[in-house]
Design a protein that fits this description.
heterodimer, A: alpha+beta, 16% strand, B: mainly alpha, globular
Chain lengths: 410, 322
């Protein structure tokens, strides 16, 4: 196993993992797409000095003879950003016992829906309307008890600053869920756009090379024009006018990325068209379509596959670029969109690197893997390009390593 | 001179295609160009008046004629958002974009050539692998990601470069203004160079590996020429035309990159103007910015063509281009 082998296998494994993740979606890991934690919560494993989300749950049923219940925690952090209490009390009262004293949160019977930002609630506890309720409820480190006397069922949610594997974004959505959603967009756009573009490029390239004359001129001049104007601005304007949907994007991308393939295929067709064996086929009475699809197309396959694999990163980068510029459907969580939001909503000034790194590394990794596949295929089509790894192939016409060093020394 | 004139004709054809594309992009697509500024509650008369203001009520052929005239005279019409001439806003931005792209292009070509040559001359070495890896990384990493990381590291965590802008606000006077401009330019320029060299390095390495195996290089070595001359005057000289072709082909990508770079670093350039105009459906402004970017590409293309004539004697003699 050479390092190159390891790289190829690692690439294949990563690609498979990503494809599986894209297929099952974030739901399979119990990750939700909604808002789960305060904005820019850190990844759960990062900083244990910050509380993670805690839920206190007290239930007691009078009819079965219970007269209350308690639920306690040991709090070793700063005051949480938000506290909310939801539930019902049938008859009794709810108390919050802090190391510095007790607060009677509610009494009597009824539905409870309290939030630490709720001004009437603050007033009922004798706190000024602009004071931070969460700070009053969590004045110090120590043990806290939520105590319910009488019957009822109460859930207290204490929002922390830590969440999941990758933290949360500017809206409090789980970044890991967004990351997994993003794989799907990148793979779908990258692969379908490239396949459509390849199909276009092959058809037009073969047509151009085989038909020649006026058809050839028209197709090749359009290739020249499309290759010498910057396409991103056109893509931007098109997606601005034409709608931002996923499939619109695929179509737009494929319209502007068939040119390279068409050129390669045309050149191959030209060499093959006049090859003696093709002339022989024609002499045998083979029809044009037969020659193209049974003989020329298979001949062009290896280089074509390389072209496709090398085209995928381009499409993925173009999609990510457009999304990064904010020109994609805001409802489609793609990696480019994650970076766009990180840039637009000040993830930096919040130090929230976890909204930037996973998406960026994801895009780069997928692109590198496809480049690697493409290069491998290209080397297969032209072995002289193979890297000069020790133990690799040194063809007779490639310079020998030792003669080069002697040339260098002079 | 004849082949050069032909290339000039080719560039004119590209610009014509751009002009036509630009015109129809905004008129054939669903929704009319006024959608962005017309409120559904507007009366039909108000709508008609707005359409008349931008000449949208005239026949298509007349609109096209007026449009071509506006484009070629560099007036570009009035912005739909601000109502001021588009060129007034654009003219300050063009030098900023050129000052970013031209050095970026030249520096990444120089760095790519140096590293690619090194890799080709040291086949099988650790440094070749390093160049190949670095090239692939540079080539395939998304520009905005790398730029965001640079911004995070060198403008936020270790703030030695500005977080945004083309100049400080308020801009300093005199010599300090130049330094301030360069200080703001440094990080975007650096990011473009490390993103741009990879393609060149990989391509030059591949071309050189092929060229070093060619008969004419063997011949040059057999003649006993010093290694330096064999490498630079024969092998490298031989691959220059295709290298220039690659340079030419990478130009549109570089210009496209300006949009993203200027957005990330909040620079006052044509690219960001295009994005803002697109987002606000200001079609005359977006069209003008696109036209200028295309013109920039074609202009550089022409420049590269002049170099092409210089490096490839066949072009000079017969006008043939591979």
């Amino acid at each position: 196993m050479t390092p190159a082998h390891v790289r190829h296998y690692a690439g294949a494994v990563i690609l498979t993992i990503l494809a599986v993740l894209a297929a099952v979606g974030p739901g399979a890991f119990g990750l939700s797409d909604g808002i789960v934690s305060p904005p820019y919560s850190k990844p759960a494993w990062l900083d244990s000095s910050i509380a993670s989300k805690t839920i206190l749950d007290v239930a007691s049923d009078i009819s079965s003879g219970n007269v209350g219940g308690t639920s306690g925690i040991t709090w070793a952090y700063d005051a949480p950003s938000r506290v909310s209490i939801i539930g019902t009390i049938t008859d009794g009262y709810l108390e919050w016992i802090t190391p510095n004293g007790r607060y009677r949160l509610a009494e009597g019977a009824g539905e409870l829906d309290l939030d630490a930002r709720d001004i009437p609630f603050k007033k009922s506890l004798g706190i000024g309307p602009f004071e931070n309720m969460a700070r009053v409820l969590f004045p110090a480190r120590g043990s806290y008890v939520l105590s319910l006397s009488g019957g009822g069922n109460v859930v207290m949610t204490i929002e922390g600053g830590r969440w999941g594997l990758l933290g949360t974004d500017h809206r409090g959505r789980d970044a890991a869920a967004l990351f997994i959603r993003g794989i799907r967009i990148s793979l779908i756009v990258g692969i379908t756009a490239t396949l459509i573009a390849a199909l276009l490029g092959v058809s037009l390239g073969i047509l151009s090379g085989y038909a020649g004359g006026f058809t050839d001129t028209v197709i090749m001049r359009s290739v020249d024009v499309l290759l010498s104007i910057p396409t991103l601005p056109i893509l931007m304007v098109l997606s601005g006018i034409w709608g931002k949907g996923l499939w619109n994007l695929v179509v737009i991308l494929s319209i502007f990325s068939w040119m390279g393939t068409a050129r390669t295929v045309r050149a191959m067709t030209l060499t093959l068209r006049d090859a003696p064996w093709v002339e022989g086929l024609r002499a045998l009475g083979a029809k044009r379509g037969y020659i193209i699809f049974r003989h020329l197309a298979p001949e062009a396959m290896p280089l074509l596959l390389a072209n496709i694999a090398l085209g995928v990163p381009g499409a993925i980068l173009a999609e990510a670029g457009l999304s990064f510029l904010g020109l994609s459907d805001p409802r489609l969580p793609s990696w480019g969109r994650m970076l766009h939001e990180a840039h637009a909503y000040g993830a930096f000034t919040s130090g929230a690197w976890w909204t930037v790194l996973p998406a960026g590394i994801g895009i780069s990794m997928i692109c590198l893997i496809f480049m690697d596949i493409g290069r491998k295929l290209e080397e297969r089509a032209d072995p002289r390009l193979a890297g000069g790894a020790p133990g690799g192939i040194h063809l007779a016409f490639a310079p020998e390593p030792d003669t080069e060093t002697s040339m260098e020394r002079e | 001179m004849k082949p050069f004139l032909r290339r000039l004709g080719g560039c004119a054809a590209v610009m014509l295609a751009v002009l036509v594309l630009n015109f129809f992009l905004f008129r054939i697509m669903p929704g009319d160009p006024l959608t962005g500024i017309v409120d559904p509650r507007f009366s039909p008369e108000a709508k008609a008046q707005l359409a008349a203001q931008w000449g949208l009520d005239r026949p298509m052929s007349e609109q096209f004629f007026v449009y071509i005239k506006e484009m070629l005279s560099f007036r570009f019409g009035l912005s739909m958002m601000t109502g001021t001439p588009v060129w007034d806003e654009l003219k300050n931005r063009v030098p900023n974009t050129v000052a970013l792209l031209l050095p970026a292009m030249l520096l990444s070509a120089a760095l790519g050539t140096a590293l690619g040559m090194h890799a080709a001359l040291h086949r099988g070495s650790r440094s070749e692998k390093l160049v190949m890896l670095g090239g692939a990384v540079s080539f395939s990493f998304p520009s905005f990601f790398v730029q965001l990381l640079l911004l995070m590291c060198f403008a936020y965590l270790w703030p030695i470069f500005p977080l945004r802008g083309t100049t400080s606000i308020p801009p300093p006077k005199g010599a300090a203004a130049v330094l301030d401009y360069l200080w703001h330019l440094a990080l975007p320029l650096f990011s473009l160079v490390i993103l741009g060299f990879g393609g060149f390095a990989l391509y030059i390495r591949n071309m050189m590996v092929k060229a070093l195996g060619e008969d004419y290089v063997l011949m040059a070595r057999a003649r006993g020429l010093p290694a330096r001359r064999v490498i630079w005057n024969h092998a490298f000289r031989g691959i220059l035309p295709p290298v220039l072709t690659i340079l030419l082909l990478s130009l549109p990508g570089v210009v496209s990159g300006a949009v993203i770079t200027e957005t990330v670093f909040s620079m006052n350039g044509v690219g960001r103007f295009l994005l803002e105009a697109t987002n606000s459906h200001d079609y005359p402004a977006a069209g003008a910015a696109f036209f200028l970017l295309a013109l920039l590409t074609v202009g550089c293309n022409l420049l590269a063509d002049v170099c092409y004539v210089l490096v490839d004697p066949r072009v000079r003699r017969e006008g043939v281009r591979e």
